[in-house]
Amino acid sequence: MEHLINQNIAHLKPSATLAMNERSNAMIQSGKKVYKLGFGQSPFPIPDVVVNALKQNAHQKDYLPVRGLPALRHAVARYHQLKFMIDCTEDDVLISPGSKELLFLIQMIHRGQLLLPQPSWVSYEPQAHLATKSFHWLPTTLDNDYLLDPATLDDYCRSQAAQPRLLILNYPSNPTGATMEPALLEELAKVVSEHQVLVLSDEIYGDVDHNGQHTSIAHYYPEGTIVSSGLSKWCGAGGWRLGTFVFPKNLHWLLEKMAVAASETFTTTSAPIQYAAIRAYEGGPEIEAYLQDSRAVLKRIALEVSTQLKKHHIAHPTPKGGFYLMPDFSHYRESLSQRGIITGSDLCEGLLEATGVALLPLSAFGMDDRFLGARLSYVDFDGVKALDKIRKKPHATAAELAPSVMEAIKIMVDWLNQ
Hints:
Layout: H1 7-10, H2 16-29, E1 35-36, H3 48-56, H4 70-84, E2 93-96, H5 99-109, E3 113-118, H6 124-130, E4 135-139, H7 150-159, E5 165-170, H8 182-195, E6 198-202, E7 225-230, E8 243-246, H9 252-263, H10 271-282, H11 285-311, E9 324-325, H12 333-337, H13 344-355, E10 357-358, E11 360-361, E12 374-377, H14 383-392, H15 398-401, H16 403-416
Parallel strand pairs: 1-10, 3-4, 3-5, 5-6, 6-7
Antiparallel strand pairs: 2-8, 7-8, 9-12, 11-12
């Protein structure tokens, strides 16, 4: 009966990140030792004050407004005002069961061509296929930390007939860990403004900038930027499934149409989760301390992993936020080819089978599989213990905070040097 499946999705496979997580868990259940560097779930616990808010609101059972609970939308707007200097109110906010749902809805509703920096997060391109949307990859280079060069975007827009376009930016980046500094954002803002490109700025890792200095492109291009975020990364609440979009006022026509689509699809977001999320977005000393400690742990681990990789000629952008690195194993191409390893997929498969170290091939992120690289997620550690350790011992080493991660790096390097 496969002939009954729409052709635009017939070739799609399950999300690479979720598939790797399920495969790793299955291997663990079968008794194998697996180092889960292929899945990017926050290792940190949800702050106690937010958990308590959920407990206190477990009785909430009524359908809430499609756009989201007004008090939550107000808290989200206030959060973006204070954190990232975005001029917005509760009327500019749309709540959903995870930002992934809104990312898909905007692709389905906005008729413009999708532009993606290469590499980009695993679900943007598959969602374009689901939405039968035209898309184009914009190349990047290691010299620029695989961040979008304004000149590349400008050249592409000038070379093509004028048309509506939607550019998705994600920073700190999944898969590279690199982020965009204000000077780069300002230059990009000039280009997108000139060509009237709609920007969807996926800032889900914004509060996991390792130095706590995230800047939104909405500060430079407020009239054409929608900011996407949620609870999953900075609040450790991936399984709670709560995402947010913040729109400029001149794009309320798009917000309204997305709310219409939401009313016919997910209807509304879980009521208890929305009530509890108010407490998360209200912030306060306890949550700020949690964020500072989380960033300190991630920064310590990221820099040590980066140092070890560079010692062994594994090039990558220096990680500055999020949970990820994007190692390039081209230095080992000749020796790996003698083992029959030619592509990034070959490398990830061979490494997993031989050592239990799980990475994701960059082909899942829009890169040519001949690029001998992978995405490495350095969050295979106990977040509760790591936070406790960094609070008691501010100079704790990466090996003390994330022993499994550092062991996996050594195993991987030894395998490469066989």
